[in-house]
Amino acid sequence: MSAEDDRQEERILLPAKQLRLVGHEQAREQVLRAFAGGRAHHAWLISGAPGVGKATLAWHLARLLLAYPGESIAEAPEQGVAPDHPVFHQLAAGAHPDFFLLRRSRDKKGKLRARMAVEDARALGHFLSLKASQGGRRVVVVDVADEMNRETANAILKVLEEPPPETFFFLLAHAPGRLLPTIRSRCLHVPLSALSAEQVRAALEGLEALAEVAPERLEKAIAQAAGSPGRALDLATSGAPELWEEVERVLSTGGAGQGTAQQAVFTRVAQALASRQARADFLLFTELMEQWLHRQMLLAAQAGQVARADRLAELLAELRERLGALEAVNLDRRQFIAGMLTRLAHVAGSVSAA
Protein backbone atom coordinates (compact mmCIF):
# COMPACT_ATOMS: atom_id res chain seq x y z
CA MET A 1 0.00 0.00 0.00
CA SER A 2 1.49 3.37 -0.99
CA ALA A 3 1.72 6.47 1.17
CA GLU A 4 -0.61 8.17 -1.32
CA ASP A 5 -3.25 5.47 -0.85
CA ASP A 6 -2.89 5.86 2.91
CA ARG A 7 -3.47 9.58 2.53
CA GLN A 8 -6.57 9.03 0.41
CA GLU A 9 -7.93 6.50 2.90
CA GLU A 10 -7.36 8.89 5.79
CA ARG A 11 -9.28 11.62 3.98
CA ILE A 12 -12.17 9.28 3.12
CA LEU A 13 -12.57 8.16 6.74
CA LEU A 14 -12.01 11.57 8.35
CA PRO A 15 -15.80 12.32 8.60
CA ALA A 16 -16.22 9.20 10.75
CA LYS A 17 -14.26 10.94 13.50
CA GLN A 18 -15.64 14.46 13.16
CA LEU A 19 -17.03 15.49 16.53
CA ARG A 20 -19.44 18.08 15.19
CA LEU A 21 -21.30 19.20 12.11
CA VAL A 22 -20.63 22.77 10.99
CA GLY A 23 -23.29 24.34 8.78
CA HIS A 24 -25.92 22.48 6.73
CA GLU A 25 -28.49 22.89 9.50
CA GLN A 26 -31.41 23.05 7.07
CA ALA A 27 -30.35 19.81 5.37
CA ARG A 28 -29.94 18.10 8.73
CA GLU A 29 -33.39 19.18 9.89
CA GLN A 30 -35.00 18.09 6.61
CA VAL A 31 -33.84 14.52 7.17
CA LEU A 32 -34.42 14.36 10.93
CA ARG A 33 -37.96 15.75 10.69
CA ALA A 34 -38.87 12.90 8.35
CA PHE A 35 -37.51 10.30 10.77
CA ALA A 36 -39.05 11.93 13.84
CA GLY A 37 -42.42 11.94 12.10
CA GLY A 38 -42.17 8.26 11.20
CA ARG A 39 -42.35 8.95 7.46
CA ALA A 40 -38.70 8.69 6.46
CA HIS A 41 -37.84 7.84 2.88
CA HIS A 42 -35.43 4.94 2.42
CA ALA A 43 -32.92 6.73 0.16
CA TRP A 44 -31.38 10.20 0.32
CA LEU A 45 -29.12 11.78 -2.28
CA ILE A 46 -26.78 14.32 -0.65
CA SER A 47 -25.09 16.45 -3.31
CA GLY A 48 -22.60 19.28 -3.30
CA ALA A 49 -19.12 20.34 -4.30
CA PRO A 50 -16.21 18.08 -3.30
CA GLY A 51 -15.24 18.69 0.32
CA VAL A 52 -18.30 20.76 1.22
CA GLY A 53 -19.36 18.33 3.96
CA LYS A 54 -21.51 15.63 2.35
CA ALA A 55 -19.78 12.76 4.12
CA THR A 56 -19.63 14.63 7.42
CA LEU A 57 -23.40 15.14 7.27
CA ALA A 58 -24.01 11.50 6.30
CA TRP A 59 -21.93 10.16 9.20
CA HIS A 60 -23.61 12.64 11.57
CA LEU A 61 -27.02 11.37 10.50
CA ALA A 62 -25.93 7.72 10.61
CA ARG A 63 -24.82 8.09 14.21
CA LEU A 64 -28.16 9.64 15.15
CA LEU A 65 -30.22 6.98 13.37
CA LEU A 66 -28.32 4.15 15.03
CA ALA A 67 -28.09 5.70 18.50
CA TYR A 68 -31.74 6.83 18.69
CA PRO A 69 -34.06 4.07 17.45
CA GLY A 70 -37.57 4.73 16.19
CA GLU A 71 -39.08 8.15 16.77
CA SER A 72 -36.86 8.74 19.80
CA ILE A 73 -34.59 10.48 17.31
CA ALA A 74 -36.71 13.55 17.99
CA GLU A 75 -35.00 13.67 21.40
CA ALA A 76 -31.47 13.58 19.97
CA PRO A 77 -29.21 16.47 21.00
CA GLU A 78 -28.70 19.19 18.43
CA GLN A 79 -24.92 18.71 18.46
CA GLY A 80 -25.32 15.04 17.56
CA VAL A 81 -24.16 11.83 19.21
CA ALA A 82 -21.64 12.46 21.98
CA PRO A 83 -18.08 11.25 21.30
CA ASP A 84 -18.22 8.98 24.37
CA HIS A 85 -21.35 7.19 23.09
CA PRO A 86 -20.79 3.52 22.08
CA VAL A 87 -22.28 4.17 18.60
CA PHE A 88 -19.77 6.96 17.98
CA HIS A 89 -16.87 4.67 18.92
CA GLN A 90 -18.16 1.76 16.86
CA LEU A 91 -18.66 3.83 13.72
CA ALA A 92 -15.30 5.58 14.09
CA ALA A 93 -13.63 2.17 14.36
CA GLY A 94 -15.57 0.74 11.42
CA ALA A 95 -17.06 -1.88 13.72
CA HIS A 96 -20.79 -1.15 13.89
CA PRO A 97 -22.67 -4.25 12.67
CA ASP A 98 -25.59 -2.23 11.27
CA PHE A 99 -23.57 0.25 9.21
CA PHE A 100 -22.03 -0.26 5.77
CA LEU A 101 -19.74 2.14 3.92
CA LEU A 102 -19.70 1.50 0.17
CA ARG A 103 -16.64 3.03 -1.43
CA ARG A 104 -13.80 2.14 -3.73
CA SER A 105 -12.03 -1.03 -2.62
CA ARG A 106 -8.47 -2.11 -3.27
CA ASP A 107 -7.28 -4.25 -6.15
CA LYS A 108 -5.08 -7.35 -5.80
CA LYS A 109 -2.00 -5.14 -5.51
CA GLY A 110 -3.49 -3.22 -2.59
CA LYS A 111 -4.11 -0.04 -4.62
CA LEU A 112 -7.39 1.86 -4.39
CA ARG A 113 -9.46 1.26 -7.51
CA ALA A 114 -10.31 4.21 -9.74
CA ARG A 115 -14.01 3.21 -9.68
CA MET A 116 -16.31 1.23 -7.40
CA ALA A 117 -16.30 -2.28 -8.77
CA VAL A 118 -19.18 -4.73 -8.81
CA GLU A 119 -17.33 -6.71 -6.11
CA ASP A 120 -17.98 -3.78 -3.78
CA ALA A 121 -21.70 -4.00 -4.48
CA ARG A 122 -21.61 -7.75 -3.77
CA ALA A 123 -20.17 -7.00 -0.32
CA LEU A 124 -23.13 -4.69 0.25
CA GLY A 125 -25.48 -7.47 -0.85
CA HIS A 126 -24.03 -9.76 1.80
CA PHE A 127 -24.49 -7.07 4.46
CA LEU A 128 -28.13 -6.60 3.45
CA SER A 129 -28.77 -10.33 3.57
CA LEU A 130 -28.14 -10.27 7.33
CA LYS A 131 -30.59 -9.14 9.97
CA ALA A 132 -30.02 -5.96 11.96
CA SER A 133 -28.03 -6.90 15.05
CA GLN A 134 -30.48 -5.22 17.42
CA GLY A 135 -33.59 -5.51 15.30
CA GLY A 136 -33.53 -1.80 14.49
CA ARG A 137 -32.28 0.38 11.67
CA ARG A 138 -29.41 -0.21 9.29
CA VAL A 139 -27.57 2.56 7.46
CA VAL A 140 -25.65 2.45 4.18
CA VAL A 141 -23.46 5.34 3.01
CA VAL A 142 -22.23 5.39 -0.61
CA ASP A 143 -19.16 7.64 -0.79
CA VAL A 144 -19.24 8.78 -3.55
CA ALA A 145 -21.90 7.57 -5.95
CA ASP A 146 -20.15 9.36 -8.85
CA GLU A 147 -17.43 6.68 -8.64
CA MET A 148 -19.71 3.71 -9.33
CA ASN A 149 -19.15 1.88 -12.58
CA ARG A 150 -22.16 0.79 -14.62
CA GLU A 151 -22.43 -2.65 -13.04
CA THR A 152 -22.23 -1.26 -9.53
CA ALA A 153 -24.81 1.41 -10.32
CA ASN A 154 -27.22 -1.23 -11.63
CA ALA A 155 -26.70 -3.34 -8.51
CA ILE A 156 -27.47 -0.34 -6.29
CA LEU A 157 -30.54 0.45 -8.37
CA LYS A 158 -31.94 -3.03 -7.72
CA VAL A 159 -31.51 -2.53 -3.98
CA LEU A 160 -33.17 0.88 -4.08
CA GLU A 161 -36.09 -0.57 -6.04
CA GLU A 162 -36.74 -3.20 -3.36
CA PRO A 163 -35.06 -1.94 -0.18
CA PRO A 164 -34.92 -4.18 2.90
CA PRO A 165 -37.08 -2.96 5.80
CA GLU A 166 -35.62 -0.35 8.13
CA THR A 167 -32.56 0.11 5.92
CA PHE A 168 -31.68 3.66 4.93
CA PHE A 169 -29.28 4.82 2.23
CA PHE A 170 -27.30 8.03 1.93
CA LEU A 171 -25.80 8.41 -1.54
CA LEU A 172 -23.21 11.17 -1.79
CA ALA A 173 -22.60 12.80 -5.17
CA HIS A 174 -20.44 15.64 -6.45
CA ALA A 175 -22.42 15.76 -9.70
CA PRO A 176 -25.83 14.07 -9.27
CA GLY A 177 -26.63 14.61 -12.94
CA ARG A 178 -24.10 11.91 -13.79
CA LEU A 179 -26.06 9.25 -11.88
CA LEU A 180 -28.60 7.01 -13.56
CA PRO A 181 -31.94 8.87 -13.75
CA THR A 182 -33.57 5.78 -12.23
CA ILE A 183 -31.30 6.06 -9.17
CA ARG A 184 -32.01 9.78 -8.77
CA SER A 185 -35.75 9.19 -9.03
CA ARG A 186 -35.68 6.81 -6.07
CA CYS A 187 -33.90 9.25 -3.75
CA LEU A 188 -34.95 12.40 -1.96
CA HIS A 189 -32.46 15.08 -2.95
CA VAL A 190 -30.62 17.08 -0.26
CA PRO A 191 -28.36 19.64 -1.98
CA LEU A 192 -25.67 21.28 0.17
CA SER A 193 -24.57 24.88 -0.31
CA ALA A 194 -21.11 26.35 0.18
CA LEU A 195 -20.18 27.35 3.73
CA SER A 196 -19.09 30.79 4.84
CA ALA A 197 -15.40 31.45 5.47
CA GLU A 198 -16.14 31.46 9.21
CA GLN A 199 -17.83 28.07 8.96
CA VAL A 200 -14.97 26.63 6.91
CA ARG A 201 -12.53 27.86 9.55
CA ALA A 202 -14.63 26.27 12.31
CA ALA A 203 -14.90 22.96 10.43
CA LEU A 204 -11.11 22.77 10.13
CA GLU A 205 -10.41 23.68 13.74
CA GLY A 206 -8.30 21.13 15.56
CA LEU A 207 -7.51 18.89 12.57
CA GLU A 208 -4.22 17.08 13.08
CA ALA A 209 -3.31 17.46 9.40
CA LEU A 210 -3.22 21.24 9.86
CA ALA A 211 -1.17 21.27 13.06
CA GLU A 212 2.01 22.45 11.32
CA VAL A 213 0.38 24.65 8.65
CA ALA A 214 1.23 28.34 9.00
CA PRO A 215 -1.81 30.53 9.87
CA GLU A 216 -1.34 32.75 6.81
CA ARG A 217 -1.24 29.70 4.52
CA LEU A 218 -4.42 28.35 6.09
CA GLU A 219 -6.21 31.69 5.71
CA LYS A 220 -5.19 31.86 2.06
CA ALA A 221 -6.53 28.33 1.53
CA ILE A 222 -9.83 29.22 3.22
CA ALA A 223 -10.18 32.31 1.00
CA GLN A 224 -9.62 30.19 -2.15
CA ALA A 225 -11.75 27.22 -1.09
CA ALA A 226 -15.15 28.51 -2.32
CA GLY A 227 -16.89 27.44 0.89
CA SER A 228 -15.51 23.88 0.98
CA PRO A 229 -13.62 22.71 4.11
CA GLY A 230 -12.21 19.72 2.23
CA ARG A 231 -10.96 21.99 -0.52
CA ALA A 232 -9.34 24.30 2.04
CA LEU A 233 -7.65 21.31 3.67
CA ASP A 234 -6.26 20.19 0.29
CA LEU A 235 -5.02 23.67 -0.60
CA ALA A 236 -3.36 24.12 2.78
CA THR A 237 -1.56 20.77 2.84
CA SER A 238 -0.68 20.21 -0.83
CA GLY A 239 2.26 21.45 -2.84
CA ALA A 240 0.04 21.86 -5.93
CA PRO A 241 -0.95 25.52 -5.33
CA GLU A 242 2.69 26.65 -5.32
CA LEU A 243 3.40 24.69 -8.49
CA TRP A 244 0.39 26.22 -10.21
CA GLU A 245 1.37 29.73 -9.07
CA GLU A 246 4.76 29.16 -10.71
CA VAL A 247 3.03 28.23 -13.95
CA GLU A 248 0.71 31.24 -13.70
CA ARG A 249 3.70 33.56 -13.40
CA VAL A 250 5.13 32.11 -16.62
CA LEU A 251 1.83 32.50 -18.44
CA SER A 252 1.25 36.05 -17.23
CA THR A 253 4.70 37.29 -18.22
CA GLY A 254 5.03 36.11 -21.78
CA GLY A 255 3.15 32.89 -22.41
CA ALA A 256 4.38 31.10 -25.52
CA GLY A 257 7.27 33.47 -26.13
CA GLN A 258 9.54 32.38 -23.28
CA GLY A 259 11.15 29.40 -24.99
CA THR A 260 13.74 27.49 -22.94
CA ALA A 261 12.99 29.18 -19.61
CA GLN A 262 9.30 28.40 -19.94
CA GLN A 263 9.92 24.77 -20.83
CA ALA A 264 12.28 24.41 -17.86
CA VAL A 265 9.46 25.47 -15.53
CA PHE A 266 6.98 23.15 -17.21
CA THR A 267 9.41 20.21 -17.02
CA ARG A 268 10.15 20.83 -13.34
CA VAL A 269 6.45 21.06 -12.48
CA ALA A 270 5.63 17.93 -14.47
CA GLN A 271 8.41 16.00 -12.75
CA ALA A 272 7.16 17.05 -9.30
CA LEU A 273 3.70 15.65 -10.11
CA ALA A 274 4.82 12.47 -11.85
CA SER A 275 5.21 10.00 -9.00
CA ARG A 276 2.51 7.70 -7.65
CA GLN A 277 2.92 9.38 -4.26
CA ALA A 278 1.92 12.72 -5.82
CA ARG A 279 -1.48 11.60 -7.17
CA ALA A 280 -3.50 13.88 -4.86
CA ASP A 281 -1.26 16.84 -5.76
CA PHE A 282 -1.60 15.94 -9.45
CA LEU A 283 -5.41 15.92 -9.23
CA LEU A 284 -5.50 19.24 -7.37
CA PHE A 285 -3.07 20.78 -9.86
CA THR A 286 -5.23 19.74 -12.82
CA GLU A 287 -8.29 21.20 -11.06
CA LEU A 288 -6.44 24.51 -10.70
CA MET A 289 -5.47 24.35 -14.37
CA GLU A 290 -9.08 23.68 -15.33
CA GLN A 291 -10.32 26.60 -13.23
CA TRP A 292 -7.75 28.93 -14.79
CA LEU A 293 -8.77 27.92 -18.29
CA HIS A 294 -12.44 28.41 -17.50
CA ARG A 295 -11.79 31.83 -15.99
CA GLN A 296 -9.66 32.97 -18.95
CA MET A 297 -12.29 31.71 -21.39
CA LEU A 298 -14.96 33.83 -19.67
CA LEU A 299 -12.68 36.88 -19.61
CA ALA A 300 -11.95 36.51 -23.33
CA ALA A 301 -15.66 36.15 -24.12
CA GLN A 302 -16.53 39.23 -22.05
CA ALA A 303 -13.84 41.20 -23.90
CA GLY A 304 -15.30 40.19 -27.25
CA GLN A 305 -12.26 38.03 -28.11
CA VAL A 306 -14.33 35.29 -29.68
CA ALA A 307 -11.51 33.39 -31.39
CA ARG A 308 -9.43 33.29 -28.21
CA ALA A 309 -12.43 32.21 -26.15
CA ASP A 310 -13.07 29.40 -28.63
CA ARG A 311 -9.46 28.21 -28.45
CA LEU A 312 -9.54 28.22 -24.65
CA ALA A 313 -12.83 26.31 -24.67
CA GLU A 314 -11.32 23.69 -26.97
CA LEU A 315 -8.31 23.30 -24.69
CA LEU A 316 -10.56 22.99 -21.65
CA ALA A 317 -12.51 20.21 -23.35
CA GLU A 318 -9.24 18.54 -24.36
CA LEU A 319 -7.95 18.71 -20.79
CA ARG A 320 -11.07 17.01 -19.44
CA GLU A 321 -11.04 14.34 -22.15
CA ARG A 322 -7.36 13.54 -21.72
CA LEU A 323 -7.71 13.42 -17.93
CA GLY A 324 -10.41 10.79 -18.29
CA ALA A 325 -8.20 8.74 -20.60
CA LEU A 326 -5.21 9.16 -18.30
CA GLU A 327 -7.07 7.77 -15.30
CA ALA A 328 -8.54 4.92 -17.35
CA VAL A 329 -5.26 3.53 -18.71
CA ASN A 330 -2.74 4.93 -16.19
CA LEU A 331 -0.62 6.92 -18.67
CA ASP A 332 2.54 8.89 -17.84
CA ARG A 333 1.58 11.92 -15.72
CA ARG A 334 4.84 13.71 -16.45
CA GLN A 335 4.23 13.66 -20.20
CA PHE A 336 0.60 14.63 -19.68
CA ILE A 337 1.39 17.71 -17.55
CA ALA A 338 4.31 18.90 -19.71
CA GLY A 339 2.27 18.49 -22.87
CA MET A 340 -0.83 20.21 -21.51
CA LEU A 341 1.17 23.15 -20.17
CA THR A 342 2.90 23.61 -23.51
CA ARG A 343 -0.48 23.49 -25.27
CA LEU A 344 -1.89 25.93 -22.74
CA ALA A 345 0.95 28.39 -23.33
CA HIS A 346 0.48 28.26 -27.10
CA VAL A 347 -3.29 28.64 -26.94
CA ALA A 348 -3.54 31.10 -24.07
CA GLY A 349 -0.58 33.16 -25.20
CA SER A 350 0.05 36.14 -22.99
CA VAL A 351 -3.40 36.23 -21.41
CA SER A 352 -3.17 37.83 -18.00
CA ALA A 353 -3.66 35.33 -15.15
CA ALA A 354 -6.51 37.26 -13.62
Descriptive report:
Helix 9 (215-224) crosses helix 10. The chain has a five-stranded parallel beta sheet, with helices on both faces. The longest helix is centred in the last third of the chain and has 24 residues, at 279-302. The chain is built from 15 helices and five strands. It folds into two domains: 3-193, P-loop containing nucleotide triphosphate hydrolases (Rossmann fold, 3-Layer(aba) Sandwich); 238-348. The chain is an alpha/beta fold.
Summarize the model shown.
54% of the residues lie in helices and 7% in strands.
- Work out the count of structural domains: 2
Q: What would CATH call the homologous superfamily of the largest domain?
A: P-loop containing nucleotide triphosphate hydrolases
**Main sheet: which strands, in order across?**
2-3-4-1-5
Please identify the oligomeric state.
single chain
pLDDT averaged residue by residue:
86
CATH fold group of the largest domain: Rossmann fold
List keywords for this structure.
disordered C terminus; single chain; 5 strands; alpha/beta; Rossmann fold; 2 domains; 354 residues; 7% strand
Task: Spell out the blueprint of helices and strands.
Layout: H1 3-13, H2 25-36, E1 43-47, H3 54-67, H4 86-92, E2 99-102, H5 118-129, E3 138-142, H6 150-161, E4 167-173, H7 181-184, E5 188-191, H8 197-204, H9 215-224, H10 229-237, H11 240-252, H12 259-272, H13 279-302, H14 306-329, H15 333-348
Parallel strand pairs: 1-4, 1-5, 2-3, 3-4
